[in-house]
Amino acid sequence: MIQRSFSRRNNDPGRRRGLPAALAAVVACFLAFATIAQERVDHAGYFVVRSASTSLQDGVRMLDARLQLVLSTEALDALNAGVPITIELQTQLIRSRRFLPDAQDAELATRFELEYRPLSQRYIVRNLNSGDQDSFATLYSALNNLGRINALPIIDDGLLRPGKDYRMRVRVMLQTQQYPAPLRLVFFWRSQWQLQSEWFEWTLKR
Predict the structure, then answer these.
(1) For the whole model, what pTM was predicted?
(2) Residue 27 in contact with residue 19, Cβ under 8 Å?
(3) Angle at which helices 73-80 and 13-38 pack, to 10 degrees?
């Protein structure tokens, strides 16, 4: 399964002239977060997949998973300043082969956006794939909700080949591709933005 994103070109020259200044301000903001974080006790954060399994419902494989999501100091500072962050759950279907390398038959990326709104003091969790969203009073409750994946549709069971052995694996990561290129370069060199779990893998029961 392939994720595609599309953007509309903005032909307004006035807005094009304003973009570099706005981008510079955002970059400066993130660098300020980094400086403040260095003056405090640094908290790296971590992501872990605690458990995962699938069940068959109406011919569709559904994923249940439990994740532990602890944000780093820099990611938390950015979130509290009103900058949304994206958490991506990656799922892969692997087909075992005897004499050849195993084949990756399907892949799904489910993205969740976590946003803090200072005026209402609420945390918003939005499923970017489906558009569903919830509101929470605390960061703990928002992350706890993100960490409980229930009945997420993964793949139509009819697409699996009869008599073949399959296994599933999932991992969760902090996604930074939605930010402008200069910010992605900053994040590449900063370990606090490299939050990614190990793969959690299990045999798919037929």
Answers:
(1) 0.75
(2) no
(3) 130
Q: What separation in angstroms does the CA of 15 have from each of 18, 48, 115?
A: 5, 41, 25
Residue whose entry in the numeric block shows the structure tokens 């005026």: 119
- DSSP 8-class letter at 153: E
Measured CA to CA, the distance from residue 175 to residue 196 in angstroms comes to 9
Residue range 136-171, pLDDT digits in tens: 999 999 999 999 999 999 999 988 998 899 999 999
Q: Order of strands, edge to edge, in the sheet holding 148-156? A: 46-57, 60-70, 148-156
The neighbouring-strand residues paired with 202 are 168
10 Å CB burial of residue 204 (0-12, 13-18, 19+) is buried
Provide the strand spans (E) within 118-147.
Answer: 122-127, 133-136
